[in-house]
Amino acid sequence: MADDIILEARNLVREYRTKEGIFGKEHVNRALKGISFSLERGKTLAVVGESGCGKSTLARILTLIDPATAGELLIEGNPIDISKEKLSKDMRSKVQIVFQNPYGSLNPRQRVGDVLTEPLMINTTMSPAERRDKAMEMLVKVGLGPEHFNRYPHMFSGGQRQRIAIGRALVLNPSLLILDEPVSALDLSVQAQILNLLADLQDEFNLTYLFISHDLSVVRYIADKVMVMYYGEVVEYGTRDEVFGNPQHEYTQTLFNATPQADIAHIKARLAASH
Amino acid sequence: MALLEIENLTVEFDTVDGRFRALDGVSYSVDAGEVLAVVGESGSGKSVAMLAVMGLLANNGHLWADKLEFEGYDLLTMSAKKRREIIGKDISMIFQEPIASLNPCFTVGAQIDETLKEHTTMSRGERKTRAIELLDSVGMPESAKALKKYPHQMSGGQCQRVMIAMAIACKPKLLIADEPTTALDVTIQKQILDLLLDLQKESGMGLIMITHDMAVVAETADRVVVQYKGKKMEESDVLSLFESPKNPYTKALLSALPENATGDRLPTVSDFHLGDEGAA
Ligand SMILES: Nc1ncnc2c1ncn2[C@@H]1O[C@H](COP(=O)(O)OP(=O)(O)OP(=O)(O)O)[C@@H](O)[C@H]1O
Ligand SMILES: Nc1ncnc2c1ncn2[C@@H]1O[C@H](COP(=O)(O)OP(=O)(O)OP(=O)(O)O)[C@@H](O)[C@H]1O
Ligand SMILES: [Mg+2]
Ligand SMILES: [Mg+2]
Description:
The complex is a heterodimer. Chain A has helices at 55-62, 89-94, 102-105, 112-123, 128-141, 158-170, 188-205, 216-222, 240-245, 250-257, 264-274; strands at residues 5-19, 26-40, 44-49, 70-75, 78-79, 95-98, 176-180, 208-212, 225-230, 233-239. By secondary structure, chain A is an alpha/beta fold.
């Protein structure tokens, strides 16, 4: 059977144009320089790369928030161009994103319960009671509790806000989820809980993930395929074992070599060097 | 005398369902030239403790402490004027969510300049040179151009580096770094950690490093405090913590490293059946 491709990117380009003052010279930053890849349904593609290499830019294009400057995007085989046509409701709930910056993506005046029930109100026919139950259930799944339902975003810790954002993205049962550094603010134990949850949902609903992370141990744990980006380009793409076992590009090698070590011999060496 | 001394700090918040105790009698201190790492579960009060030190608790917060002193000055009873002199200059903080703590309406350059203007006597030209030097030191590409950008025109990790540049701009005596490298890839993370450790060695800066990344702890800390549900569970030097963690939560934390996964699932704290006290 041929691979079931849920999303395909062909030569995506994104330029940011900024002006210095009103009459100033225009400056063009090519943040994506022609990116192509495809996502297989039910699988996880991890994206890694240097800070500023274009990962979040790519995430916003794939989730149909920003248009690409050039190139093609196909979802389930259909070309999509948000600068030309309006998105269908169906498409809107099919593709969800967890933003890198949870604080900025949560409305400060909206209670967490409403954050979670609002997408259900807009996109489903559930009754208020069903919506509330579903939202409560999600809150618990991401490791928060019913007591948090009526609190506002600023009343949470960084990692709790990150989990609210994950809950909001999952509540609509999307088929494709783009996660931009979704566990970066979580301690190892809560991180484990979230990674387990994502794995369970993938098993149960055949969910597809594009998982942006700079944490290579997380990537190694969760990824089927790995894509390495460098200055707006894909420099390496392969199965997890290929990329970790035999990295080809110099940047990938640099990345792996810079990974900090948590073993005891290493700590001893550091302490010895500093005394 | 310790640089910062916290004794029996408790913080509570008013919520719709009554009072919530976020921090319950936590004590620790940090000396000049020392790196103290604070680790612990998400929501365990790591940030709240530091916001209390900075005088930045939300309006619905209440705090008590037997002692909250910086260089022997009582932060609880200090005059507003004295506090303004210290906070931002002698004590500065890299906030956990950089983009939320940068002002969206001003360029990065204007925000760094403002910090330098407030706490130093540098001329306009000197401030500009210093701003570029600071951005270079945090690995910002095209630093001169970056000065003219607004926060929303930068990537997550670039914003985080701006925040770091601002926090070290006035050479603080105490730097509180709340998850300072969460948005950075490992190569830039290394550069930033080296930068902070150099500052700590050269100027005797005290550094409180809040992080969930045990590798960052291993690479930087002298001492480690472990928090769980608003309480301090354990405090020890870095080597003992990794070699022989005493508290069950600490053990759980170390075994949840993804590289320690056995089979398909990662162990979580609930697998260790900890009670509220963390001590099963
Ligand atoms: N709105 C914008 N206007 C101008 N330039 C932008 C804008 N958004 C991003 N950029 C630039 O585009 C490049 C890519 O940014 P992007 O946010 O995609 O990086 P990233 O890979 O997500 O980085 P990080 O890991 O730090 O989050 C960066 O150099 C950034 O400064
Ligand atoms: N203004 C507030 N009102 C009510 N509760 C609050 C408020 N601010 C923080 N809290 C609660 O206090 C507790 C401690 O929060 P804190 O931000 O210190 O956690 P943390 O240890 O820094 O966690 P993380 O690693 O997720 O950042 C959390 O349970 C949080 O929900
Ligand atoms: Mg990003
Ligand atoms: Mg925090």
